[in-house]
Every structure is written in C-alpha cells, then in structure tokens.
TrEMBL record:
The lineage of its organism: Bacteria, Pseudomonadati, Pseudomonadota, Alphaproteobacteria, Rhodobacterales. It comes from Sulfitobacter mediterraneus. It is a multi-pass membrane protein. It is found in: Cell membrane; Membrane. Its main location: membrane. PANTHER family: MEMBRANE TRANSPORTER PROTEIN MJ0441-RELATED, MEMBRANE TRANSPORTER PROTEIN YTNM-RELATED. This is Probable membrane transporter protein. The chain crosses the membrane at residues 12-39, 85-106, 112-131, 176-204, 211-230, 236-257, 269-290. Keywords: Cell membrane, Membrane, Transmembrane, Transmembrane helix. Belongs to the 4-toluene sulfonate uptake permease (TSUP) (TC 2.A.102) family. Pfam families: TauE (PF01925). Coiled coil: none annotated.
Length: 304
C-alpha cells in the first residue's frame, strides 16, 4: 500500500514504515535508546531526504520513549532527579544543535554532515561498547563481579547532589555535560542520543544498569519533543504522515521490547546493541564510499 509523504515528496509503502517503527520501538524498550540512530539511517535507505528524516524521527522517538518509560515507572527504575539534571543540559544542547543544523541547511551541506556524523559516532560508540561488553561477559564467566569503575576526578568536582534511586552522590557537572552533548546530537542527527547516554551513564557516572534505561528514556522524551518543535517552526521539515506511521509501530514495539529486555542479562543487551550500531555504521560508510561522485559534487557545491 503506497502512501505519499507531502514534506518528503516521495511515495513509500505504509506497511514498511509501520514495520520499521515497530522494530525500532522494540529496541527502544530493550536498550533504553530512542532508536533514532537506527531509524534515521533506515529512512535514508528507503529514499527519505536526510533533513526530513532527522526532523521527523525526533518526533517518533518521543512516542516510543514515552511508551517505554511508562513500563519503567511501574518497575520504579527511573531516577527522576538524575533525569531532570540530564534534561537541563539536553535542552541547551538541542537549541545549539538546531542553530548549527539551520546554518548548514542554508549552506546546502546538511545531508553530507548528517551522514558523516552517523558514520563517525556509530563507529566509535559501537566499537567501545562491543569490547566493553565482551570484557564484562568474560569476567562473569570467570565468576568475577563486573568492575564498576570509580572515576576519581568526577568525585572531586563541585556542586554535588544526592541521587537516591541511583545510589550516587556526585557533581551535577558531568550529567549536564552529557545532556548538552546528547541535545546537540538529537538536533543534528535526529537521535534520542540513548546510544551515547546509556554508556555514559553506566561508565562515566557509575549508575546501575537497571536504572539507566528508564532514566535515559525519561530525558529523551523532552529533549526530542523540544527538538521536533524547533525543527517544525524553523525548518518546516517535519513530515506528519511519516511521523504518525512510525509512531504507531514504535509504541507497540516499545512495550514488547521492555518485556524482552527484563529477561536478558545486561551484558547480553549491551553486546547486541553494539553489534547493531556497528552494522548500521558499516552500511552508511559503504553508501558514502560507493557514491564518490555524489559526495564530491556536494563538497564542490559547498566550496563555491
């Protein structure tokens, strides 16, 4: 069943979009990631222009994250205080990111920038997570407790706060900085930023994995909602028809994903997520390498 997307100006199969939404919703519930890092490249692959994919995907993440966070609230695995601190940073980052996005759109360079950002970020994050998860699985098999690194320099920072749900007493500076980085990514790449937020919360802030997923989703809802509003009012690149189809699939998928996530070990979840990140990164990198004429013409157009 073909459906015409007015803003994207392309026709796409409606069931394909529902399926993609569902798949990404499942990931969002399992891993605590908005799923945008997979959905946005998937939208590129089916012919949606990158600027539209980024702005619309931020919209879809709001719904699938909201659906996932409700399931986590029932289990009391959301640290609201930590989520709020991350959110303050996230809103600042999103505003900065949309300004950069608008500037590059005016220069005609936004499509190339978005794809390059994906290749770099997914490659780095996927690689780090993969090796970290392998190490954790090996330690578990040997009967060693998973090493929780304590970063002394973080504990030395001022403006400390007590985060009871996470069992932490740390400075608010690292969470705010993580939030800003994630907000910028949400605006430029159309991602919830969970694929950076989740590892940062586990390894940098030392939060327990069970609390990380719900807290990450809580923060993502507001940052991506804010990003969508900014894109819709400044760029006019939010395609409502596309968003609704992805939304329906995403909400259903998130509930399924949350149930699967509870049954799996944290190390298994992390290694699965790492493999998916690397797979998408590989496909995007190939697309950029296999179409040198297009990249060259984009680069040349920006140069004049």
């Amino acid at each position: 069943m073909q459906i015409y997307l007015p803003i994207a100006e392309v026709s796409v199969n409606a069931f394909l979009l529902l399926g993609l939404g569902g798949l990404v919703g499942i990931l969002s519930g399992m891993f605590g990631v908005g799923g945008g890092f997979l959905m946005t490249p998937l939208l590129f692959f089916i012919g949606i222009p990158p600027a539209v994919a980024v702005a619309t995907e931020a919209n879809q993440i709001v719904a699938s994250s909201f659906s996932g966070v409700l399931a986590h609230f029932k289990r009391r695995t959301v640290d609201l205080r930590m989520g709020t601190v991350l959110l303050i940073g996230g809103l600042i980052g999103a505003a900065l990111g949309v300004m950069v996005f608008n500037y590059l759109k005016a220069q005609g360079q936004v499509d190339l920038l978005v794809k390059l950002c994906y290749v770099v970020f997914l490659g780095v994050i996927g690689g780090l997570m993969f090796f970290e998860s392998l190490k954790a699985i090996r330690n578990t098999k040997r009967g060693k407790p998973p090493a929780r690194k304590k970063h002394n320099w973080i504990h030395g920072l001022p403006f400390k706060m007590r985060f009871r749900v996470s069992g932490l007493y740390i400075s608010v500076i690292p969470p705010v900085v993580v939030g800003i980085a994630v907000g910028i990514l949400a605006a430029i790449m159309g991602v919830g930023g969970g694929f950076i937020m989740v590892p940062a919360m586990i390894y940098l802030l030392g939060m327990p994995t069970k609390v990380v997923v719900g807290t990450s989703l809580f923060q993502i809802i507001f940052v991506t909602g804010f990003t969508t509003m900014l894109h819709a009012t400044t760029n006019y690149t939010v395609d409502i028809v596309l968003a609704v189809l992805l939304l329906v699939g995403g909400v259903v998928g998130a509930q399924i994903g949350t149930r699967i996530g509870v049954k799996m070990k944290a190390e298994q979840l992390r290694i699965l997520l790492a493999l998916m990140v690397l797979a998408v990164c590989g496909k995007l990198a190939l697309d950029l390498l296999l179409q040198p004429s297009e990249v060259f013409s984009l680069g040349a157009a920006g140069g004049h």
